[in-house]
Amino acid sequence: MTTIEFKGVTKTFNNGFRAIQRTDLTINPGEFTVILGSSGAGKSTLLRMVNGLETPSQGEIFIDQRKLTPQNLRHIRAKVGMIFQQFNLVNRLNVMTNVLIGRSYYRRWWESLFYLFTKQDYKLAHWALERVELTDKVWQRASNLSGGQQQRVAIARVLAQKPQIIIADEPVASLDPATSLEILGLLSKICKEDGVTVLASLHQVNLAMQFADRIIGIKQGKVIFDDQPVNLLNNS
Ligand code: ADP
Ligand code: ADP
């Protein structure tokens, strides 16, 4: 199983704003780790650096003891799947095609439309849709699904890559409370049963307490808490 390591990571944007300040972190394999913080704390910046959507200004990130560089980004992205607050599906395409796009993660989404998917790609896509319990929606357009169903398609798209790590950037921020529980429960199940490391950002303490093995609290780009959920309320 795969570790994520941040060594002295700082992210300063081009306007001079420092969103992440000199951070050292090791994310343990097989755990469900929640990055907890309010809006603007730097959660998204932190997570986006793990699969190369942002690059550190200083410091280094290692995935599985391998330094993340522009040269091995494709290799890293094969291991690291990401889901987002807004699901990021291709709305006019059906569910199956959206999931198949996960099989061509190393191409741009439109390039994948020219790519002939193999039998194995379809097999994995079907397996992934079974895993998220959406086999009855395979030929529906993504835009016809509810928010919770769309997030499940996004999870299936990532699962079809057979990832070792899932990065989830505020995966339930667009969903109602009941659906939020359902989606976090699904991510937790994938973590425990399939041994996938899950690193998710949240802003709700109660959800973090309920699902995380470990909570990393961040504020203004700095880690201010790092412990098991039970110790969060004792922390002043
Ligand atoms: P860069 O990251 O190279 O600065 P972007 O295209 O991401 O380029 O952003 C361009 C500029 O827009 C940034 O320098 C910043 O001033 C502003 N900006 C973009 N996104 C945000 C944001 N989320 N919060 C504040 N400012 C932002
Ligand atoms: P969170 O996910 O915790 O809401 P973010 O990582 O999105 O926080 O943002 C952290 C801070 O960095 C915010 O103040 C945001 O405005 C700023 N920021 C994000 N992207 C950019 C950018 N491209 N340029 C300048 N500032 C940015």
UniProtKB/TrEMBL annotation:
Gene Ontology CC: one annotated term: membrane
Q: Which SMART domains match?
A: AAA
Q: Which UniProt keywords apply?
A: ATP-binding, Cell membrane, Membrane, Nucleotide-binding, Phosphonate transport, Translocase, Transport
Q: Which GO terms describe its molecular function?
A: ABC-type phosphonate transporter activity; ATP binding; ATP hydrolysis activity
Q: Where is the ABC transporter domain?
A: 4-236
Pfam families, per the entry: ABC_tran
Tell me the PANTHER family matching this sequence: AMINO ACID IMPORT ATP-BINDING PROTEIN (PTHR43166), PHOSPHONATES IMPORT ATP-BINDING PROTEIN PHNC (PTHR43166:SF6)
For this entry, the protein name equals ABC phosphate/phosphonate transport system ATPase
Tell me the organism. Crocosphaera chwakensis CCY0110
